[in-house]
Every structure is written in structure tokens, then in C-alpha cells.
Predict the structure.
Amino acid sequence: MKPALLLNTLSLALALAFASTGAGAESAEELIKKGDVFYNKLQAAEALKFYLPAEKLDSNNVRLLVRIARQYRHLMSDAAKPSEKRQLGTTAVTYAQRAVALAPNDPEAHLALAIGYGKLSPLEETKQQIATLRLIKIAADKAITLNPSNDLAWQVLGRWYLALADVGTLKRAYAQAAYGKLPPAKAEDAVRCFERAIVLNPKRLMHYIELGRAYAQMGRGADARKSITKGLAMPETEKDDPETKKLGREILKKLD
């Protein structure tokens, strides 16, 4: 199925589902509350049945736009085809961009944008990936400046440092020719960010597994095993936790 057709089909399905509920007379606030029930259960398609109609009634609601962006990222994770993932990821970024435009000093809006760019980047061609790296850094830095206590913003920044530290010589040369010299980045920078994220929120398993990934990249095998093992032992509470644990197990196998 083509991306545009996929999105149209999804929107139509959501609209039909919404119409069948008979909730057309409800206010945006009432719809958002109903969507939040599914938001908390990580049921993205169900949440959008209420969020999208609410957006029609309150299109400048920044909190709602951030929530919608998150749901499209979750749908992106569930999609099987790269083309579907790109379409859903682009939609998530678009909603986050709208939120930032409406509330340029809202840290959650900038965080949604940084995460959206990060999810989309692996699906892009090299040229766009390099351009997106810069956008991730800008959005993550802004989110941290506005709210230094946001552990997820530090997580995104840590992943950015780790990704940039792993950029090969050829891709760096390409980036320098196209966009100018990339900023310096080391795995140690990523470690600092992940450690900060853990201090702020020690209950997210992703922080420990990403810290372990950074240690592994630095050749600190024992530290990597310790951190990843701790993350793997933690309960799954977020959408990406199963995939993050899979990554952690793959890293441990390479360390053996």
C-alpha cells in the first residue's frame, strides 16, 4: 500500500470509528480525556479516534498536538514496511513542528520534535540523515534549556552523541562537503547524558541499556554488561521497551 493511501485509509478508519461512537457533540476537552485513557494504555490507534476529532475542535492545543505526535510515532513502531514507517514518522514530525510553532518555549513540544526526527532519521538517505542530525541536536538542546530536569531530553541528546560518534569517515567527509564540519562528539559525551537521565529518572530501562551501548562502543565491556543487565531486568512500561531490550540482548551477545 502506498504511504499516502495508508495514511488516508488510517484517517478514514479513525473517522468512521469516531462517527460510530456518536461522540460528535462532545467537547474537545471531553474527547481528549477519553483519548488519554488509551494514551496511558499505549493504544495509539484507539487514542487517535478521540484525539483527531478533538484537534478539529481545538487545533491550537499544544498538549494535544504533542500527544498526537506521540501516537503516530507509536504507529510507526508497529508498521512493517519502511514506506509506512516514513509516512507515519513524517506525520509525527509535522504535528510536533506545529506544537513548536505555537509554543516555542514549551519543552515538551521541542522534545516531541527531537524524538520524531530521531525516529525518522534511520529511514532517510545519507544526505537527509546528516541534515536531520543537526535538527535533532537543536531540538534536544532547546528542550533541555527549557527544562533541564527532563530525563527523556537527556536520553535523546545521549543518542545523538552516540550516533555522531559512530559516523564513519566517508559519511563525515560527505557531511563536511554538503553542510560544513560536523560538531565533535564522543561516546563519553553520550555516557554523561545517559548518566544524567538515570539520575533524573532511574525507572526507565532505556537509560540503562543505552548507557550500556555507549560503554560497549568505548570498549568497556564489564560496565556495558552491568548496565544492560540491569535494564533487561526492569519491567516493560513504555512502547519501545521490548525493542530496547532486544537491542540490549544483541549487544550482550556481541560482548561474549
User: Anything to note?
Assistant: Confidence is low (pLDDT under 50) at residues 1-5, 18-22. The CA atoms of residues 100 and 109 lie 5 Å apart.
